[in-house]
């Protein structure tokens, strides 16, 4: 089965609609962070980067005076729950393997515990941990990381580089096992 790429995912209209809210720049940067961290942690690059790209797709807009009111937003926040569902639906629609879709959905659900009444830090799998850490690395006070801009063309270029690296490493792995 042909791999569903990060570029395939990004090129869906629904992906760009939802990623617009939390910022394409943040999504792509977190996917790049996740690639480096996943290589070091020896976890699935495909799962970690897909989860990272989609981790904030559950965000909704909470505007006040034309700007996101971040504090108010956080009080009502269920973005990880919405994101998990949206990511799953999107991947299945793209023909993704159902187990991959489930793993990505779970990593999106658990990328933060800010909406939960308890901490989950030591209960994440290594891949889920990579996604949470990759996100934390790009975070700025007051949610400023959500406002950094990036044109869709640049996003496609950067995601294509990640896809190429993943495919290269996957073929190296195959080479070793043959
Ligand atoms: Fe994030």
What do these coordinates show?
There is one protein chain. The chain is mainly α. 65% of the residues lie in helices and 2% in strands. The protein has one domain: Hypothetical protein af1432. The chain is built from nine helices and two strands. It binds fe (ii) ion. Fe (ii) ion (FE2) binds next to loops. Pfam families: HD (PF01966). This is HD domain-containing protein.
What's this, in brief?
This protein has helices at 6-10, 13-22, 24-41, 45-54, 70-76, 79-93, 98-109, 126-138, 152-177; strands spanning 63-64, 67-68. It has one domain: Hypothetical protein af1432 (Orthogonal Bundle), CATH 1.10.3210. It has 178 residues and is mainly α.
Layout of strands and helices, then pairs:
Layout: H1 6-10, H2 13-22, H3 24-41, H4 45-54, E1 63-64, E2 67-68, H5 70-76, H6 79-93, H7 98-109, H8 126-138, H9 152-177
Antiparallel strand pairs: 1-2
Helix pairs in contact: 3-4, 3-8, 3-9, 4-7, 4-8, 6-7
The structure holds fe (ii) ion (FE2).
Residues 26, 55-56, 135 line the site of fe (ii) ion (FE2).
N-to-C CA distance: 18 Å
Give unreliable regions as ranges.
none
Number of structurally distinct domains: 1
Gyration radius, to the nearest Å? Answer: 16 Å
Query: What does the average pLDDT come to?
Result: 92
CATH fold name, please?
Hypothetical protein af1432
CATH C-level class is Mainly Alpha
Overall, the morphology is globular
Quick tags:
single chain, 178 residues, mainly alpha, Hypothetical protein af1432, 9 helices, 2 strands
């Amino acid at each position: 089965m042909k791999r569903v790429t990060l570029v395939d995912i990004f090129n869906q209209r629904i992906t760009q609609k939802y990623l617009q809210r939390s910022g394409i720049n943040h999504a792509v940067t977190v996917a790049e962070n996740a690639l480096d961290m996943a290589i070091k942690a020896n976890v699935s690059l495909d799962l970690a980067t897909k989860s990272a790209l989609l981790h904030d797709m559950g965000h909704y807009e909470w505007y006040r005076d034309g700007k996101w009111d971040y504090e108010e937003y956080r009080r009502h926040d269920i973005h990880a729950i919405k994101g998990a569902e949206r990511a799953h639906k999107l991947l299945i629609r793209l023909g993704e393997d159902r187990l991959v879709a489930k793993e990505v959905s779970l990593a999106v659900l658990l990328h933060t515990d800010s909406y939960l009444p308890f901490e989950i830090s030591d209960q994440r799998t290594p891949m889920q941990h990579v996604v949470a850490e990759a996100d934390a690395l790009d975070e700025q006070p007051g949610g400023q990381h959500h406002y950094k801009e990036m044109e869709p063309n640049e996003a496609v270029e950067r995601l294509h580089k990640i896809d190429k690296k993943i495919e290269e490493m996957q073929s190296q792995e195959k080479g070793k096992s043959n």
